[in-house]
Amino acid sequence: MAQRIVIENCSIATVDADDTEYASGHVVIADHRIESVGEGRAPEGLENVVRRIDATGHLVTPGLVNTHHHFYQWITRGLATDHNLFDWLVALYPTWARIDEQMVRAAAQGSLAMMARGGVTTAMDHHYVYPQGSGDLSGAIIGAAREMGVRFTLARGSMDRSEKDGGLPPDFAVETLQGALAATEETVGQHHDASFGAMTQVAVAPCSPFSVSTELMREGAELARRLGVRLHTHGSETVEEEQFCKELFGMGPTDYFESTGWLGEDVWMAHCVHMNDSDIDAFARTRTGVAHCPSSNARLAAGIARVPDMLAAGVPVGLGVDGTASNESGELHTELRNALLVNRLGAHREAALNVRQALRLGTYGGAQVLGRSAEIGSLEPGKLADLVLWRLDTLAHASIADPVTALVLGAAAPVTASFVNGRQIVENNRLLTAEEDEIARSTREEAQRLARIAAQG
């Protein structure tokens, strides 16, 4: 018999197709799934109720879904703070090229902890730096996510275009073409779960046009489709990238991606800041997704992505933290607010995005981009029980009448409870699945160790 958790007396933003909301409603969790959502109190006579939560003063939403990140960067935060993307990469690659398994595990724990305690229930990591002899980096990342209790996609990245080939990474920080493909296939075989409700999935994810050969892009796409997994990479992040693609390939990024098999409903791209109308049309036509990373785009002076135009065209768009060397806060709630504010600085001004569109980007939009909208991203019966209780009756939010406005535009709301797959992983803003102080200590030590190694050259 299913064990039930009943949550009552809360505001609810379901983020379903009709944006259904309840001023005072209930959610019933039965084992791993949502059994019912509705107005008022939960139905009478429910059997095997193991817990009842009086959520007065709270807003319940789907868990936040992060669609782009680089966990390893947790231990290189606060560096090159006044650089654009290319200069930032040149400054940091020599340090990143010296990471090892112990560092990556600590950094993954730090990244996951910060997101989870701030309402993220589904995370992803685009890890693409695999220095020779550095250990089982993919296994370390996946293990950290499993221990944290967060639903997770590892985008197994790769690079094979180093400095000697005109790329940015140091020579010893890249893989060979065949080595990258073989290691990616092995990671999919070991860790990818294609079933409904999977806690761990793997995507094929060569890094970017300026660190990856055309052969790796093309053969990576073929590999992903043979294995039945999704594809992820960086795209159209900066003006310099567009110039690079035109000089090297004779075409812009979107045309280059299409020529290598990298547009489609099984693909999502990070950033997509510099997109013209035909680029957006191509993404809409092929249902290629976008991970919008407003804080990182601003930190690296990349520009303002045309999110309102993408949404109007039907492009799936989610939100991404991006690596914490370009978004030191490391949590996704900031991106709800910044997505709205940054896009209002663009051409559409106050009509660019509203608070409910911002919440949708961070929940259902992210689920679409990760190919999991049938499972997560909205509060509907039959979907997985990934949800968050945000406290909105404290000084920070109590005078804001509309709870969604309070969540998106207000200060970071306390997370009273966060559930993943029906299991509570956060209580009163503290992780239940990991020791935050221990993670803080280990990340500080690993950051210092990496800095010493990098300084020695």
UniProtKB/TrEMBL annotation:
<protein>
    <submittedName>
        <fullName>8-oxoguanine deaminase</fullName>
        <ecNumber>3.5.4.32</ecNumber>
    </submittedName>
</protein>
<dbReference type="GO" id="GO:0102127">
    <property type="term" value="F:8-oxoguanine deaminase activity"/>
</dbReference>
<dbReference type="InterPro" id="IPR050287">
    <property type="entry name" value="MTA/SAH_deaminase"/>
</dbReference>
<dbReference type="Pfam" id="PF01979">
    <property type="entry name" value="Amidohydro_1"/>
</dbReference>
<dbReference type="InterPro" id="IPR011059">
    <property type="entry name" value="Metal-dep_hydrolase_composite"/>
</dbReference>
<dbReference type="InterPro" id="IPR032466">
    <property type="entry name" value="Metal_Hydrolase"/>
</dbReference>
<keyword id="KW-0378">Hydrolase</keyword>
<dbReference type="InterPro" id="IPR006680">
    <property type="entry name" value="Amidohydro-rel"/>
</dbReference>
<feature type="domain" description="Amidohydrolase-related">
    <location>
        <begin position="59"/>
        <end position="404"/>
    </location>
</feature>
